[in-house]
Amino acid sequence: MSKLTKLEQTMDLILKCQSIEQVWPLFAESMAHYGFDRMIYASNRFRTVGTFGDPDDALLLTNHDSAYIDAFIGKALFLDAPMFNWSAKNTGVCSWKWAQDRREQGLNSPAENRVINFNDRMGVVAGYSVSFQDISGRSIAGVGLCAKAGLSQADVDLIWDENGDELFLLNNLAHHKIASLPHKRRGKSLTKRQKEVLQWVADGKTMADIAAIMGLNAATVEKHLRLARDSLNVDTTAQAILKVSVQNQFFLVEDFGMQRVGKPYPFELKR
C-alpha cells in the first residue's frame, strides 16, 4: 500500500475537517512549516462596488497578535494597505516586494506608506498575498502570509521559488474548504426558530404552511421572519435567505438531530 506524502497528508486532513475551527489550525501550521508564522484570511460574499462590504458579513481568521489586529483591522488600516488593495483588484499570488518597490519609486499614496511604516514597526515586513478567484463578482477573499521574524523579502521570494506550487495548492484548498463550511455572522445570531422559518420559506412553503408545520400562528411566523431580517440587516426575506444560504447556515447536520460519526482529526502535523 502506497503511503501519502506529507503534503498529501495535510491535504487529506484539511479535506476531512468538519468546521472552520478545525481547518484553521491545520492551515496555520502548514504555512508555518514554510516560514509563514502569521496570517490574515478574510472573505466577504457581499462586497459592494468600491468597498469591502459590511464588516459584519466578513469572515476574518488570523493568528497575528491582538496589538497588530486592533490597529490593522480595528482602526481599518487595511483599507489603505497596498497588498489589500492589490488583492481586491487581482487574483493569484503577489510578493510583498511589489509594495516595497512602489514605495521606493514614489508610487504609493501617503496613506499607503503610513500602513507600510506601521507594518515595519510591528515586524510585518516580508511575505506573500494570495487572492482567490470566485465566479461571483461580489465575492472577495484573500490571505496575507507574513514571514517569521528574521526573514527578508529576498529570503521569502526564494522560499516561494522553491515551494510556490505547494503553497498555492494548500492556500487554495484551505480557502475552498473554509468557503464550503458554515460560519456565523458577527453581531446578532439567528435563533433556531428564525433559521427554521427561513428554511421553510426557502423550500417554497407559504406562511399558512409554515404555521401548520411548526404549530404556530401566522403572526408568530411573520415575527420570526422580521427578527431574522433585522438580525441579518436586510430588508426582504429573499435577501435573508440568500445571506444565510451563502454562509452555509441552512440544513446543517445538527439541525436534524444527527451526530457526526468518526474520530476527531489531529491538528498536529508530524514532519
Explain what the structure shows.
The protein is α+β, with helices and mostly antiparallel strands and 271 residues long. It folds into two domains: 6-180, Transcription factor LuxR-like, autoinducer-binding domain (Beta-Lactamase, 2-Layer Sandwich); 192-256, Winged helix-like DNA-binding domain superfamily/Winged helix DNA-binding domain (Arc Repressor Mutant, subunit A). It contains eleven helices and five strands, in the order H-H-E-E-H-H-E-H-H-E-E-H-H-H-H-H. It has helices spanning 6-16, 20-33, 66-72, 82-89, 97-104, 110-121, 153-180, 192-202, 207-214, 218-232, 237-246, and strands spanning 36-44, 59-62, 92-95, 127-131, 140-147. Strands 2-1-5-4-3 form a five-stranded antiparallel sheet, sandwiched between helices. Helix 2 packs antiparallel against helix 7 (153-180) and helix 9 (207-214) crosses helix 10. The model is unreliable at 251-271 (pLDDT under 50).
List keywords for this structure.
5 strands, disordered C terminus, 271 residues, 11 helices, Arc Repressor Mutant, subunit A, alpha+beta
Structural classification: alpha+beta
Radius of gyration: 21 Å
Helix content: 40-55%
Major sheet: 5 strands, antiparallel
Strand content: 5-15%
What number of domains? 2
Q: Give the CATH H-level superfamily of the largest domain.
A: Transcription factor LuxR-like, autoinducer-binding domain
Q: What value does the average pLDDT take?
A: 84
Please write the CATH class name of the largest domain.
Alpha Beta
> At CATH's second level, what is the architecture of the largest domain?
2-Layer Sandwich
Strands of the widest sheet, in order across it, are 2-1-5-4-3
The count of β-strands is 5
Shape: elongated
Sequence of secondary-structure elements: HHEEHHEHHEEHHHHH
Distance between the termini: 20 Å
Q: Could you name the ranges where pLDDT drops below 50 across 5 or more consecutive residues?
A: 251-271
Tally of helical runs: 11
Q: CATH topology of the largest domain, which one? A: Beta-Lactamase
